[in-house]
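User: Structure tokens for this complex, please. No commentary.
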Amino acid sequence: MSLHDKTAPSQTDAITFEIELRHAPAKVWRALTEPELLAEWLLPTLGLELEIGRPFTLQTQPYPGWDGKVDCQVLEIEEHRRLRYAWVVAGMGLDTVVTFTLSPTASGTLLSIVQSGFKPEQKQNFGGARYGWKMMGGKLVDLLARPT
Amino acid sequence: MHAVAVETKIFQALADPSRRAIFESLTSGELAVKDLTRRFAISQPAVSQHLAALKDAGLVDGRREGRCVYYRVEPRGMKPLIDWIAHYRAFWADRVDRLEKLLEKMDE
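Assistant:
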């Protein structure tokens, strides 16, 4: 298992992952920046260009009341090293930044993914949160059939 | 209102199969009460009661136009149920898995 969730249990404003990949940074960079590759592992993109300040869209799964669009904006590009963009769903109160950092290693690349900017109060939504997301995954009926 | 109370309201509002069906049909667009009555073959007072429960939970909103009342999904209604951090932890774990598979497939 090469994926490490580095998020501290007490951390409420960011999540951090580190992944050891057996592939060179240049190749990983392509997977992070080419729309047709991004569509295969992350999400379909619309309007992505590697240009600072450039807005683009990620299309995720729609659910009741949300078309599933994530509004992004390129904030930092350092080829084969670092890519940072805003990751925002304004109507749902999500205003975060995602940073991909690539470090060359003897065997390939250490990729770190950090998503930061979560608002602390969102942690209070402990009760139904996991159900909320399962609903969006299409399990609405099963879950809600349970007694509340 | 306390967050947990809101969540309870949402779950209770959606626990009823008819209300759930009404809510789901509104997700594709605004509908008049009479459209819903026709679609679900239940009485207008029953539909109105279901809509009132959904509205009370903040899941839908209504507006009157002439003699018709139109309802639509309230986009922020589900917000109390969303824990973005939990969601994105699961999301990235899943996506990284896919990234590794993709990298195996890609040409050098």
